Amino acid sequence: MKKYEEIIKAYKNGYAIPQFNTIDAEYTRYILEECEKEKSPVILGVSEKVANHLGGFKVARNIVDTLIEELNITIPVILHLDHAKSKESCEKAIKAGFDSVMIDYSAYPLEENIKITKSLVLENPNTIIECEVGTIGKNGNEGIVYSDIKDIERIKRETNAHLIAPSFGTVHGVYKGEPKLNFELLDEIKNKIDTPLVMHGGSGLSDENFKKSIAKGVAKININTELKQAWTKSIRKFLNDNPNETDPVFIIKSTGVEIKKVVSNLIHVFGSNNKA
Ligand code: 13P
């Protein structure tokens, strides 16, 4: 699978490909333009919520394809369904042409997680399949259940999933206090399985935490919150500075600069620049 090879290349060469979660055409455009400028491969993350907001998985696929064509994007672009809660959702996304899906059955018993992940891998030989083991918390260290190394070994052995997202101390949303990452767990995983790992909850971590994680097998890093913060900050500022502006084109356009700053900074930290 050509697109999976991009992630393997990152894994083998000590850098990570960013997954930037997107919400619409403009947002996607800014991400693609900056990644193209930096010659960085990119994964565009779309959640079920965003796919619904857009009108369906096909809309997301078409937005990405049209932008690639119109903007002359030459870097590898992987369209990924983030945190799907059902097999049906994954299948719909795959049918619409998504390159990659994450089935998030982390809240279910391991047996069920294995069963659904395995069936997706077997039935979709041309799609990258990601699974989560343990529970990645949300909003300030809440609800973290660290992955058990035995569960990770088992899910890899029994499903042959392409990407595994372990829970090692990261959280979605905003961190409260210092994040405490369990690097020993990453070392153990690397010793037992030879598979690229996914870091969820990348927003708000230090450069040092990113670099250490990449050195220990993380080859895909998910960023959502930091982009959302950049977007809302820009809109707030623009409307404060221009209270009489009513043209959405100008209002939304104001988000481009801040979104591109986030994208460019993280590409350099992850080392994915000039790898496309
Ligand atoms: P953040 O909320 O830290 O940006 O995490 C995003 C994520 O992991 C999406 O799957």
Question: What's the short story on this structure?
Answer:
The chain is α/β, with parallel strands linked by helices and 276 residues long. It has helices at residues 2-13, 25-38, 48-54, 57-70, 87-95, 110-123, 149-159, 183-192, 207-215, 225-241, 248-253, 256-270, and strands at 17-21, 42-47, 77-84, 100-103, 128-133, 137-138, 163-166, 171-172, 197-199, 218-223.
Q: How large is the count of helical segments?
A: 12
Radius of gyration: 18 Å
The overall strand count is 10
What are the distinct ligands in this entry?
Answer: 1,3-dihydroxyacetonephosphate
Instruction: State the major sheet.
Output: 8 strands, parallel
Helix content: 40-55%
What is the strand arrangement across the widest sheet?
Answer: 7-5-4-3-2-1-10-9
| Structural class estimated from helices and strands | alpha/beta
Q: Quote the beta fraction.
A: 15-25%
Question: Can you identify the CATH superfamily?
Answer: Aldolase class I
Task: Tell me which CATH architecture applies here.
Answer: Alpha-Beta Barrel
Distance between the termini: 16 Å
The top level CATH class name = Alpha Beta
- Global morphology: globular
Characterise the protein shown here.
It is a single chain. The protein is an alpha/beta fold. The protein has one domain: Aldolase class I (TIM Barrel). It contains twelve helices and ten strands. Strand 4 (100-103), helix 6 (110-123) and strand 5 (128-133) form a beta-alpha-beta unit. The longest helix has 17 residues, at 225-241. The protein binds 1,3-dihydroxyacetonephosphate. 1,3-dihydroxyacetonephosphate (13P) is lined by residues 21, 82-83, 172-173, 200-203, 222-226.
